[in-house]
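Review form for a predicted model. The reviewer records the input and the model, then writes brief findings.
Reviewer: anonymous (R2)
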Amino acid sequence: MDGNDLGSETTRRGIISQAWMRISQLYQGTLDKWTPHTKGRWFGSFLLLTVFVIRIITKQGWYIVTYALGIYHLNLFIAFLTPKIDPAMDFDADDDNGPALPTRASEEFRPFIRRLPEFKFWLSVTKSTIIAFFCTFVDAFNIPVFWPILVMYFITLFCITMKRQIKHMIKYRYLPFTHSKPKYKTVESTVTVN
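Model under review:
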């Protein structure tokens, strides 16, 4: 190898890394533009999921891909409902019921922080649905199975998992959904001068 070959390879690497960096910047810019449009993002994801389900129904196959997608979405949903700091792992020996989130106005307000934020939840659901959709074009993933068993197993798994999650929510007294910001009462002080 002489100096010219080394220089041209370095130039090629530089061009590839610059192109990759530019693609990454465009991707991140697009995600940043979509961030405030929550309803539109989720509408697009449900539309994409509907197209995926229609493809599965019309082609009568790829049930393993659908089952794997459902299990993955279930795991994402559980992470979305779970607090970032799990109260089950942070307990006092004196308290039999374990710690609880504040429930009265006199207690400190600590907002519910999710283990999986809404935007990352949406992004993971969308990416996984796109990947599963493209998997339906590969015949290697079309493994023949008796799909009613997968459906019953998924329903059973969903019920057991949600029952455990709801019990956890009741035990540690937290609600993962808030409709609006907390409103603080203002104290109107009247000053009288005598």
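Findings: Residues 70 and 91 are 33 Å apart (CA to CA).
Further findings: The helical segments are 3-34, 38-59, 63-81, 118-135, 147-171.
Recommendation: see findings above.
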